[in-house]
Amino acid sequence: LLTRLNQGQAAPAPRVAEPAPAPETSASAVRPEGEAAAVTRRDPVQEKFSMELHHLLVEKFKKEEISPAQMNDREQMRQRITVEVRTYMEQQNKKLTPNQMVLIIEEMVNEMVGLSILEPLLHDEQVSEIMVNGPDLVFIEKKGKLTKADCTFRNEEHLRHVIERIVVPLGRRIDETSPMVDARLQDGSRVNAVIP
Questions:
Q1: pTM of whole model > 0.85?
Q2: What is the radius of gyration, based on Cα positions, of the chain?
Q3: How far apart are CA 76 and CA 104, in angstroms?
Q4: Which of 188, 180, 127, 186 has the alpha carbon at shortest distance from 3?
Q5: Where would I find the H helices in the chain?
Q6: Are 192 and 4 in contact (CB under 8 A)?
């Protein structure tokens, strides 16, 4: 499986010297300018908290019937998510440092309106390509060298959701009856996705 976003370039030929592990689902991308936030593996308690908070936000915004246009307004959503996260923290009596609060808010913004764990990689100017061969098999290319990224999707469903978030705005779909998409984003980036 392969998802590839390449800024105005054709996708490079498959690498033979450094093959990725057996595919389940995958992604690759070249990212626009900006600073990347660190993405590291977290312990189960942190992951559980993150999933609970994300579920709460999804349900709340679903009840409020947030329009697609509103969901696509990243800054407006950041403001709303910030309010909801702070309220939730107070209700749960959870204490976070200012830096932890910034990180959890950014994570929720990426989950709700971005491409989840891929966002920091897309904003890393040194990353020329991102390849995902499964939920826990994320690889990046920097200066021509392929290495395993220190981030993972929660599961196959999480990864499929991100792939759909990429292709749906292009007027395409990807499922068992249409398992491959090859298209270009508005900024010229190439997207190639294949699922089993």
A1: no
A2: 17
A3: 17
A4: 180
A5: 44-63, 68-71, 74-91, 98-113, 118-122, 156-167
A6: yes
Tell me the C-alpha distance between 121 and 50, whole Å.
19
| Of the candidates 84, 160, 75, 56, the residue with the CA atom closest to the CA atom of residue 116 | 160
The letter for the amino acid at 64 is E
Distances (CA, A) of 156 to 8, 25, 162, 168: 28, 8, 10, 18
Retrieve residue 51's tokens. Answer: 């999933």
CB contact set of 151 (below 8 Å; sequence gap of 6+): 39, 40, 41, 117, 120, 121, 138
CB 81 within 8 A of CB 106: no
Structure tokens at 62: 């679903």
Residues 134 and 104: their CA atoms lie apart, in Å, by 24
**Strand, helix or coil for residue 31:** coil
For 51-108, the pLDDT digits (tens) are: 899 999 989 888 888 887 888 888 999 999 999 999 999 998 988 899 999 999 999 9
